[in-house]
Structure formats: structure tokens, C-alpha cells
Amino acid sequence: MILDCAVIGGGPAGLNAALVLGRSRRKTILFDDNKPRNAVTSESHGFITRDGIHPQEFKKIGQEELNKYPDVRIEKQRVHCINKENSLFQVETENGKIYSAKKIILATGFTEILPDIPRVKEFYGKSLFSCPFCDGWELRDRPLAVIADGGKAFHMAKIVSNWTNDLIVFTNGSKVLSLEEQKLLESKGISINEKKIATFIGHEGMLEKIEFEDETSVPREGGFIAAEWKQAATFDSSLEYKLNEQGGIETDSWQRTNTEGVFACGDTRIAGPSQLIIAAAEGSMAAIAVNAALIEEKFNLEKHA
Ligand SMILES: Cc1cc2nc3c(=O)[nH]c(=O)nc-3n(C[C@H](O)[C@H](O)[C@H](O)COP(=O)(O)OP(=O)(O)OC[C@H]3O[C@@H](n4cnc5c(N)ncnc54)[C@H](O)[C@@H]3O)c2cc1C
After folding, report:
1. Does residue 84 carry a pLDDT above 90?
2. CATH architecture assigned to 115-225
3. Does the pTM exceed 0.70?
4. Mutational test site, ligand 1, from 7, 16, 32, 111, max ligand atoms within 8 Å of CB
5. Strand-pair category, 262-264 with 98-106
6. Does domain 2-111+228-304 have CATH number 3.50.50.60?
């Protein structure tokens, strides 16, 4: 069977793409190995009607909704290879199966690269986060940290100051703020600490203090890390996509990449705020664009027959 579309990645972006494709009677397989970025957290916020939901519950509801549509199937497999042969894509999964598809939607997300500080992973997703719009409300009015040893420090500090008046920027041994930026932050009551962090202290992921290499410490109850990002998936592939400055797959407003027949949506584009609802909306848009392309191909073929 030739699929109309192979959707790679079953987070909100891929799930919503598959939903719209299923409702459009497009033969679709959604491939997902269930390693989403937000697996470290137990609550997702900011998606209307689903505020506070557990990420895996969100996914379960999405998968159940797809079950209603006979043209959609979910394969819980990792895709490791995509190639284009003539006008069809060959998609190979880790168990060695190969599927042919007319179109591809990449919804594989990204992974953050956390700073190399001992115990950071114990706290990430519980009291340390990367997106204030996702988790700022839960940390409001508490003594917070912004941990940033690169160019995002100033920007992140300004944003996080919206949720607390007790904020310290920790640059972890780096000098990343200009004199002007330091003055501006200090004028708003935000302090700066440039000591090298030794570790995080707390219980069950809830931060209590940040300890430095000089054995001093500062009490903090949570905060935000300015992480770096990389693509969650790399494929053995002859396809070449244009990437943006952050390493995200570049698309137009219809989620089309520069490779004909390949669309990308959600975090994999690393192009703006990273949010479930934005990823889902882009998934919907990618599916509509796939439909539009298939319809055009059908009518053009008929015109030339
Ligand atoms: C700690 C934390 C807290 C967050 N909190 C919130 C929040 O409260 N609200 C909010 O809106 N957003 C939140 N986010 C952001 C949110 O998780 C992302 O914006 C969202 O998950 C992006 O959806 P996506 O579908 O693009 O990617 P993902 O959800 O990451 O899904 C990608 C899927 O593709 C699969 N995949 C990847 N490669 C392959 C492959 N080769 N083959 C098969 N499958 C593959 C992965 O296993 C994964 O299941 C949070 C993120 C983090 C890290």
C-alpha cells in the first residue's frame, strides 16, 4: 500500500497532523517512539481545555481520538531512514520495515542540551524549567534563579522577572552580561551571581539551594535554565532541508520545507515559542498543506490525461 502521508513523530504536532489527515480520508501512518521533550514533567500548561494535564494523558487522548479514523494507523517505531525514490518517499523503521509514502510530515521535536552541572537532570522538569510561559505561574512570587551562561541571560532575566520580585541571574562562571545590562537588571532589583555552580541541592526534584565551587550557597526554590537545543531526530537520508540559525528546519507559512513533499511542524522547526498548542496548530497546518498538494496533483494529472 502506498501511504498518502507518513507523519514522523507523535507529539502534539504529529498527533494533530494525523487527526486532520484522517478526517480528510488520507492513508496515514503516524510513527512515534514516545520520547517527547516534556517526558521529564508531570503537568502541561497553557493548552485551553487541557491546562495542567499530564503529558502522557494528553498523548493517550490524542491517540484514542485517532482510533476513530480508519485511514490512520499508529506505529510505535522509530524511523531511522527516509529517502526519495522517483516521486515516492521510502520510510524505514528500526525494526527493518519499509513504507512508501507520497508525502512526509516531520514532527520529531527537539531536545535541549542542559548545562553540564551535577544533578541538573534531577531538578529539570520539577522545579527547574526552560519556558516561563509553561511553568512560570506555578513558580510565581518564589525566590527564583535564571541559569544562563550564554547570550540568552539578559533576555531570560527580563522575561522571568514578570513572575517574581526575588530573582537572581546565575551565569555559572561566565561573564555574559554587559555593564549596561547589569545596571539595568540591578535597577529592577535583579541580582547577578557569576560564581561557578558546583551542584543543586534539594529533595525529589524540588530545589532548595544552589551551591558554588567556593562552597558557598544561595537559597532558591526554582527557576529557569537557558538551554541550547538540537534536533531530536537525525535520519540516514539523502533529503536536504534548509535549517535556520537555531538549527530548526525552515518552512514557509504552509509548513513546506525546501524539499518538495516534505513538511515540518512543531518544535523541530525551533522557530519561536515552544508550546504544545503552537505545535498542534502547526501540525494541523501541515496536514492541510499536504491535502492541498495532493488535491493539486490529482487535478493536474486529470487535466493532462
Ligand atoms: C520541562 C518541559 C516542560 C514543558 N511544559 C510545557 C507546558 O507546560 N506547556 C506547553 O505548551 N509546552 C510545554 N513544553 C514544551 C512542549 O513539550 C513542546 O513544545 C511540545 O512537546 C512540542 O511538540 P512536538 O510535537 O513538536 O514535539 P514532541 O512533543 O517532542 O514530540 C516529538 C515526538 O516525536 C518522536 N520522535 C522523534 N524522532 C522520531 C523518529 N525518528 N521516529 C519516530 N518518532 C520520533 C518523539 O519520541 C516524540 O514522541 C515543555 C517542555 C519541557 C522540556
Report:
1. yes
2. 3-Layer(bba) Sandwich (3.50)
3. yes
4. 32
5. parallel
6. yes
